[in-house]
Amino acid sequence: MTSPKRAAGREGCGCLAAVARGLRGACFRPAVTADGDGGGSAKGSHVHDAAAETRYLNASNRELGDHFQTKRDGENGVDASIEKRTPKLLQFTFQELKSATLNFRPDSILGEGGFGYVFKGWIEPNSTAPAKPGTGVTVAVKSLKPDALQGHREWVAEVDFLGQLHHKHLVKLIGYCIEDDQRLLVYEFMARGSLENHLFRRALPLPWSNRMKIALGAAKGLAFLHGGPKPVIYRDFKTSNVLLDVEYNAKLSDFGLAKAGPQGDKTHVSTRVVGTYGYAAPEYVMTGHLTSKSDVYSFGVVLLEMLTGRRSMDKKRPTGEQNLVAWARPYLNDRRRLYQLVDPRLGLNYSVKGVQKVAQICHYCLTRDSKSRPSMDEVVKQLTPLQDLNDMASASPRPRSTQRGKVHR
After folding, report:
1. Could you say which residues bind ATP here (predicted)?
2. At what angle do helices 376-383 and 352-365 cross, to 10 degrees?
């Protein structure tokens, strides 16, 4: 944890340092998101400062790298304790995973991130032995680059959380490999990839019913994390971290930034500001105070992305529309205009009542007062009835708002 005093004396533009300096030259300004109490209003004063955003992202990356930088001193002791904390995980050798992924062949790459690459591989059931392609169990092998921002500590956090937490809406961690500088994780294979790909990169739009199923599954995953005897704050909820199996069941992945939640009479956890721009709750960005309601805000952003088909931040859009939350907020509580938010690729293939309810949930999840946001258990209860709605707009009189005008897409 970085104290305000220390942050104020640090060179550069770290987010907490900016807060301590009274937001002089801040790298993350309330006006950028228009979500903070000290920023602009959602209606008229939203200003997108590209330079400020760049400084924020660069500073966050520096802090992330510093916070999770690999420390070799005493590392062996940490590694030795992994096995004790996660006895159910399989321990792979590097050679086994090399064979399972066909020597980490480029055409087996499933994805890439700041951590490194994810490869498709095959192993024998309940074993670390590699299998022939197309046989055995299909897995995803995440390989950490030695110089990646996601360092050893974050890698250990991933093993710790997913090695001990088990739920149908959390991706299953099968095992790991730690040899010399090699750090690899082996997960269950999620056949349909990420929610991000389906919302923003596929030619065919994700059907409304699938969106609601995914939203409910992801909400249940977060509710599970928040509701245990030792609550966990996910801290990096976004579309790229929601993975889908062949039946569009949603599972949360990438727990490198997860944090143990407050316990006892504590109301929050104080920590450095890390995460993804556009998804982080404003009070967390401004103060470093992390609560389960921070995840609720991030869920509201993702649900809004699912409703609109727009990214949380999109520099390609006109200035007033680049920040999704700031742009959409005036529509969410307006029954006559909220249909203008619906992803145009859906046409009229969406539930009328479903859109109304989703907009309402977004409105409450994204409220500026964190204490007024619902719990994820409450969100689950609100989303559950939406799975069975059949009042499709295509079978109803077209909403008046869509007849009277269209918003810029």
Report:
1. 142
2. 170
